[in-house]
Amino acid sequence: MQWSLILLFLMGQCCFSDCQLYEYLYIKEEKTWTEAQQYCREKHTDLATVSNMTDMKRLNISAGGQRDVWIGLYDPKDVNRTWYWSLPGVEFNESETNWNTGEPTDNGNPGYENCGFLYKNLKWVDTGCQHKRYFLCYDETNRTQKYHLIREMKTWQEAQRYCRRKHTDLISGLKQLQDEELKNVMNSADKETYFGLFRDTWRWSDGSSFSFRHWNNDLNNQKYNSGQCAMVKFNKNGSWKNNGCTVKKQFFCYDDKVILIKKKMNWEDAISYCRAHFHDLVTVTNLDEQRWVQEKAKKASTPFVWMGLRYACTLDLWFWVSDEVVSYKNWASDEQMDDCDMSGAMETGGKHRWFKRNDSEGFNFICSRK
Fold first, then answer.
1. pLDDT tens digits along 258-306
2. What is the pTM of this model?
3. CATH 3.10.100.10 domain span(s) along the chain
4. Distance between terminal CA atoms of the chain?
5. Between the CA atoms of 330, 142, 53 and 175, what dihedral angle is there, to the nearest 10 degrees?
């Protein structure tokens, strides 16, 4: 690609770090959950989806920490329980498990055992979330010690809150559970330990599959198929409570700033389409943005979706068309090799890694809005 064409791609684009992939709106009218959902869908995108603790802070700032406010989480009466990992962005795969023989059991009481603990040999067992056990935290920022065995007796939700406050989260996913460092930590365990596995029937209004939950310790929210809805309770923990959906409360909507286009286009046609109808091809600068964009990618009809990531052959570098530096990376292995006429695409299945693809290939794509 010629430098003049690169300038054309970058000209007039906003610095994406100043943009948000989604924006929360605090609505001070009081409505039932269903009325709030209808309002948000008519005037914005939907009731608020919350994907991590960063989102929780954004909600708290928006509302000023004043009230109990509806969000877009509800509990249908007619769906099956689904297993999730506590750590945002780690997806549960039914074909990749390590259950102990005969597990999960529910202990003969359907709906009772919705959290997981580990034996010393790292085999999984389902259990009631209200029991108190030791637990395992994961620390994303600690380079010398990633895993911590906490020898305090807590319920599963108390353990989750502790890990999120002092570390990152409860350990989650096979990658962590198969780590030799964790096995060394577990050699010192003398009790069964909670880890980040749970299941529930709660669903997000916009259909996204985010596993993030931030419940208080009320055992009522451990029930399933309750027909209730979730609200943020702005106390010192900013935790969530469930309530009957017919109660009138203020609520959060969100405006989505990214959109999946299910048209099959080459990369240059895709960027032209985004700029003509929206703003630009999407930029992904951190893990939270990756998680949000990959939710869109799951619904694509092609194996990859184009992003605004391009290789400049003459300059020998990858760049975002929004003028962001490529600092966060999510390449599949062996995909960082550089070649001319290549752009970046996210796989729509699997781990949603990035792949280089020839510009002429036709894929769905994801646009950003202003």
1. 999 999 999 999 999 999 999 999 999 998 999 999 999 999 999 999 9
2. 0.87
3. 3-19+257-368, 22-77+202-255
4. 26
5. 50
Is residue 266 within 8 Å of 361, Cβ to Cβ? yes
The highest-level CATH class for domain 3-19+257-368 is: alpha beta
CATH annotation of 22-77+202-255: 3.10.100.10
Q: CA-CA distance, 51 to 87, in Å (whole number)?
A: 10
Q: Using an 8 Å Cβ cutoff, are 81 and 92 in contact?
A: no
Sign of CA dihedral 19, 24, 29, 35: positive
The 10 Å Cβ neighbour count of residue 75 is: 20
Alpha-carbon distance of 308 to 292, in angstroms, equals: 15
Distance CA 34, CA 205 (A): 10
